[in-house]
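Journal club prep — side note

Before the paper discussion, L.F. wants everyone to see what a predicted structure for a comparable chain looks like in token form. Sequence:
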Amino acid sequence: MTHERILRACGLGPDVTQAGDHIVTTPVDGSEIARLKTDSRGEIEAKIARGAAAFEAWRRVPPPRRGELVRLLGEELRAAKAELGRLVTLECGKIYQEGLGEVQEMIDICDFAVGLSRQLYGLTIASERPGHAMREGWHPMGLCGIITAFNFPVAPWSWNAAIALVCGDPILWKPSEKAPLTALAVQRLVERAMSAFGEDAPEGLSQVNVAGAEGGQALTASEEVRIVSATGSVAMGRKVGQAVAQRFGRCILELGGNNAMIVAPSADLEMALRAITFSAVGTAGQRCTSLRRLIVHESVYDALIPRLKSVYEGLAIGDPLAEGTLVGPLIDAAAHEAMHAALEAAQAQGGTIHGGERARTGTPEGGIYVHPAIAEMPGQTAIVCEETFAPILYVMKYRDLDDAIALHNGVPQGLSSCIFTTDLRESEAFLSAIGSDCGIANVNIGPSGAEIGGAFGGEKATGGGRESGSDAWKGYMRRQTATVNYSAELPLAQGIRFDI
């Protein structure tokens, strides 16, 4: 299927793809696939105003009714899964199977949010005063700005959007400049769902802001944008967090990851091998949950690492739209430069490098394809503590589990983590208060591939935000504690007497 046919199948004809001067290229072959119109600052401010106005109407719609809109969106996504999955692949370079998986995440979170729309539960609280009742309720917060990254151009939007909508919040999406086409395609599906939903969906309920950094800055600066959920680099998160905090807004930050796996002496090495490979090379190492550090017990190191090198040598690298491909391209030349610089630093810091060179045989001309790299390191050096968004796996040995956990936790980021072991004591120690310091901790599965039922996010430089499942919905609502006096008296709390 040609690039143009993929775009047209998602409803993106020349009226959209040739409407402006913002050039969008595909990492598949580096070719230009669109020239989009971008929003001016005035247009962005107008969209913010429309979203704020939509909040006045949308918060009055009962939550189960709001859930019906998300159910309709889920049905639209089911019908468009194949086409949207190809567009994800075309725009960000992940293989088609991963593109399909990302759309499936969107469908899954819609299903979750529909059920949630009838479960926005508060609490009843025992009052110390006779004739009084206390309760805790949750109310819509306001316009939610969503800033997404190129590597997962649609799923993180859906984690926020589906939950925000059932919580009563309109949404304004600022996609990555590198991946705006998927946002426009999804917005068309939202508009179809809103049309089927009827007049209860106000104008401005869901909008897309196609712009550069100034688009995100407008969201972070506006007091009308009550919530800003941002996915991206630590540097970007610092700017967003400071700007939103200055005006006492609410931030949900999903930032860097430097995820590790500990392979213990009792590990099932066959399982570990499969998990390592997918986690380290999936999306060409451009996931926030990609496996970047492998901490292997010295007793199994020589049994595992040679096999891992052999698997790496046989990886199918090429066109991500072609069946059988396992590793697609890097997003752009800057990503390749960062990878090359990191490998040079690793070698200078005592590492032995396997792979990492350009892959030129059997790959589309114009794309940046690389062989995933394994860097055997003498320890956790400075470069190992940095996150490089590329398929580099740093490998280290350990002797004692406490030392392995110290290595594991000894980086600024704290997103996802895992251990491979069949020892109950080791697995429980890893999951305990003295174990992994990450927001996600797994046993006998890799660090990537989180399910939508659990809250997604991490600690430290990862930002501390939570999206998707569990009680992450509370980030999109405001809490209210209410006390009702149904007696004829007026007793004061804490036994205070104040007679007049």
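L.F.'s comment for the group: The chain is about 40% helix and 20% strand. Keep this in mind when we get to the figures.
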